[in-house]
Amino acid sequence: MLGEKTFIGSSGRVFPKSFKTSPLLRSWLSKLKNQDVKMITNHDWVGWEDNKLIFKTGIKRIIVDADITILALGGLSWPKLGSDGSWVKILEKDNIVVSKIHPANCGFFVKWSNIFKKRFAGFPLKAVELSFKNKKMKG
């Protein structure tokens, strides 16, 4: 569909063979543009007014009357780039239930033994249990 070869990983998820997502994004954006989808970037969504979307860019306020809206709002991880989670309060103000936001991934350091590193470096960790303080989680 998007012109990239894929494979199914052991987890059952689909991945691009190139392990690069940028070609998929470019292809997807091109398809959407060809279907007259209007993309608005560098605007902050601040809510609704009379069933219309309200955005701000700089000091300017913009009202958009759309038939369909897809909100891709991000999480909390990049406040400098706008991913600050401010959209949660907007939705909750309109009585829309939002699940608590949790991190999707993380990095960590482990002092693996040389034997372990030589044998398993570069392989995915599966069927592991991680623990931190008094919490444990299998994954």
Could you explain the architecture of this structure?
The chain is of the alpha+beta class. It has a domain at 1-39. Helix content is 19%, strand content 22%. It has 3 helices and 7 strands. It has helices at residues 22-34, 87-93, 114-120; strands spanning 6-8, 14-16, 44-49, 52-57, 60-64, 129-132, 135-138. The strands form 3 sheets. The chain has a 3-stranded antiparallel beta sheet with strand order 3-4-5. A hairpin with a 2-residue loop joins strand 6 (129-132) and strand 7 (135-138). The mean pLDDT is 85.
Looking at this protein, list some descriptive labels.
139 residues, alpha+beta, 3-stranded antiparallel beta sheet, two-stranded antiparallel sheet, 3 helices
Number of strands: 7
**What's the helix-strand series?**
EEHEEEHHEE
Sheet with the most strands, sense and barrel status: 3 strands, antiparallel
Shape type: extended
Q: Beta-sheet strand percentage?
A: 15-25%
Uncertain segments: none
What is Rg?
21 Å
Annotation field: number of helices: 3
Strand order of the largest sheet: 3-4-5
Overall pLDDT: 85
**Separation of the first and last Cα atoms:** 31 Å
Oligomer: single chain
Protein structure class: alpha+beta
- Report helical residue fraction: 10-25%
